[in-house]
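If your schedule permits, I should be very grateful for your opinion on a structural question. Thank you for your consideration; the sequence and its tokens are set out here:

===
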Amino acid sequence: NLVFSMPKGTPPERLHKAVRKFAVEKFGLQHRYAMALHTDQAHPHVHIVVKAISEQGERLNIRRATLREWRRDFARYLREYGVEANATERAVRGSHHQNRKGGIFWAARRGESTFMRERVESVARELAGDGLRAERGKARLLQTRREVENGWLAFAGMLRRDGMHEIGDDVRRHLERMSTVRTDREEIAHRLHARVRDNPARTR
């Protein structure tokens, strides 16, 4: 599952054309796909659901290098349709990505990140006291998640109405697998709790 997102003010029809060209170039005659443009939010974006197994029986394997190439090509397609764009990290987002928070957490544990080690220690102190304090950004995170889920549900319904039941079901399964919404500090607390649960002897 891929999301092509552009800033507020980007002409939706040009974004749609660029994504359509991207899909044809990258998946045409190989992987079945469906796409939908959403303009109900400030920034226009397009969802693409791609069948993982190609018509030739090969599995789609999206690596970090693949995403870099896709961002570069997508930016070029946008420019062809008159939209100024660079190959930014957020232009194309795949559903399979490295857990940045997990990487930071373990880097902190290895002593490679002084900043994150201090954050982990700060969260640990809060948990040992009155508990983790509420964060103002959590409400915005939850609102964004609701918008994303509503978009995917609408997309799944559209696919099923068009007879693409298998891909529609894949979208719903993707929603069910989405991780819990957490702030960075909540993610650190979650991993600390997991560490205590999995290694109780080490906390004594």
User: Anything to note?
Assistant: The helical segments are 12-27, 64-80, 100-109, 114-128, 137-161, 165-177, 184-198. Residues 144 and 181 are 10 Å apart (CA to CA).
